């Protein structure tokens, strides 16, 4: 059942959620029913392994690719076990050589093991599958690795010895003809090996490559992202936000129930001689966080701002009370735009209209004071995303001090690494005393961690 386990591994790499219990059910089902009927095996594995309609196409594609290889190898194995083909061919070759020598002639014979197999026209499917397994072909990740694995499989089959045989100077016309035949057979074998590697790549690596890319983007600096990565990153942001929202919703439901109210529980069950048929719980009030987010959209910071706002507005179920502001020099409230339009198109409009301009934190904070300072209270969390680079201007830290004193807490998220703070025109140390927390915010993992903590302690 090793190949069933490998197939389940390929499905998991493709994104199908398969639990250990479901894997065991699939293996037990195949042990009972066998693989003689391909249609039955396909249906049974689908029933045990595929839970979502959206995964059906991936399952069918991988099943056809994977079990085509298994059947080819099995047929080759059966031929080897059920018929003495290899032995008969070797014996026939030996007899031909003896007959030729008795008649005074000569017959060329391949000296390498692989050459003998090719000369006898053996089916190499099983040998290829075994060599691929020995080389751990299922670990293939990138398209560029295909030639490497094909070369390694050919080596394991005996390609080096065959190459040496083909380079040797022939000592007879028969030997020259044999070398020509073996060279053609080797070319066909290499093509067969490449086809096999191609199939294994489609089974195991294509989705690994996507996963590898996703893992890389989650930790990549958002300020360095190429525009071609935006679509994938947006999906990753929304996926992470949904996961976090689900976790927090469950936690909030648990907290709402509170602690057991012993007095009310006893009173509610007085009619049942003290048997606890009904429980009463102390109500726990859980307030959703009230957030104001301010994003610097100048220069490279605008890329981080895009994904911070996308993450925040993907948490609408658990953080519905959000006011959003963006600035380069002028402070602009964009709450209505983000709420009324599709989030992605709204972000695009924001970045096109206000992104990339020169920065003036002093002017921006003055605008924020006029528009929102009176709305901040002890239930408000204020989040500012910015690099604190103010082009040598007045940073108006007096306004930021008011924000800090009026709010529940203030978080400053800086897209630069810590050793860059207070270098050049950065005035991070002027704002830091008036922040509850100052943290780097450079990638998706940082954003996810920041909002996880906000939700946990709200």
From TrEMBL:
A Pfam family per the record: VWA_CoxE
SUPFAM superfamilies: vWA-like
UniProt superkingdom: Bacteria
InterPro entries xref list: UCP010256, Uncharacterised_CoxE, vWFA_dom_sf
Region called Disordered, residue ranges: 75-106
Leader sequence residues: none
Compositional bias annotation for Basic and acidic residues: 88-101
Stored PANTHER family: BLL5662 PROTEIN-RELATED, BLR6139 PROTEIN
Name the UniProt record assigns to this protein: VWA domain-containing protein
Organism (species): Paraglaciecola mesophila
């Amino acid at each position: 059942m090793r190949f069933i386990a490998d197939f389940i591994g390929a499905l998991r790499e493709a994104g199908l959620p398969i639990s250990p219990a479901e894997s065991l059910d699939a293996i037990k089902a195949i042990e009972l029913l066998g693989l003689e009927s391909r249609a039955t095996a396909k249906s049974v594995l689908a029933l045990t392994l595929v839970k979502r309609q959206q995964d059906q196409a991936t399952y069918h594609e991988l099943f056809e690719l994977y079990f085509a290889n298994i059947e080819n190898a099995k047929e080759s194995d059966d031929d080897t076990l059920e018929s003495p083909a290899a032995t008969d061919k070797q014996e026939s070759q030996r007899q031909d050589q003896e007959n030729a020598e008795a008649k005074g002639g000569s017959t060329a014979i391949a000296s390498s093991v692989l050459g003998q197999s090719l000369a006898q026209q053996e089916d190499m499917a099983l040998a290829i599958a075994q060599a691929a397994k020995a080389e751990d072909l299922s670990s293939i990740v990138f398209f560029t690795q295909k030639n490497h694995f094909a070369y390694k499989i050919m080596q394991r089959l005996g390609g080096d010895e065959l190459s040496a045989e083909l380079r040797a100077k022939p000592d007879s016309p028969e030997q020259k003809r044999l070398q020509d035949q073996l060279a053609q057979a080797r070319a066909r074998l290499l093509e067969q090996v490449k086809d096999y590697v191609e199939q294994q790549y489609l089974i195991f690596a294509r989705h690994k490559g996507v996963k590898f890319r996703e893992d890389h983007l989650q930790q990549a600096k958002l300020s360095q992202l190429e525009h071609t990565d935006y679509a994938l990153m947006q999906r990753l942001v929304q996926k992470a936000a949904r996961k976090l929202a689900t976790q927090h919703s469950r936690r909030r439901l648990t907290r709402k129930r509170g602690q057991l109210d012993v007095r009310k529980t006893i009173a509610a069950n007085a009619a049942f001689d003290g048997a606890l048929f009904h429980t009463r719980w102390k109500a726990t009030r859980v307030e959703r966080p009230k957030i104001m987010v301010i994003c610097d959209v100048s220069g490279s910071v605008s890329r981080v701002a895009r994904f911070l706002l996308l993450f925040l507005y993907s948490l609408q179920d658990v953080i519905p009370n959000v006011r959003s502001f963006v600035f380069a020099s002028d402070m602009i409230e964009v709450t209505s735009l983000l709420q009324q339009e599709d989030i992605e198109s709204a972000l695009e409009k924001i970045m096109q209209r206000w992104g990339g301009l020169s920065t003036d934190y002093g002017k921006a904070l003055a605008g924020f004071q006029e528009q929102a300072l009176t709305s901040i209270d002890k239930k408000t969390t204020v989040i500012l995303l910015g690099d604190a680079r103010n082009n040598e201007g007045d940073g108006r830290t007096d306004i930021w001090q008011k924000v800090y004193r009026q709010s529940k807490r203030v978080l400053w998220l800086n897209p630069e690494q810590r050793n860059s703070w207070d270098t050049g025109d950065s005035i991070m140390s002027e704002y830091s005393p008036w922040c509850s927390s100052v943290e780097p915010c450079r990638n998706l993992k940082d954003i996810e961690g920041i909002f996880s903590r906000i939700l946990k302690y709200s």
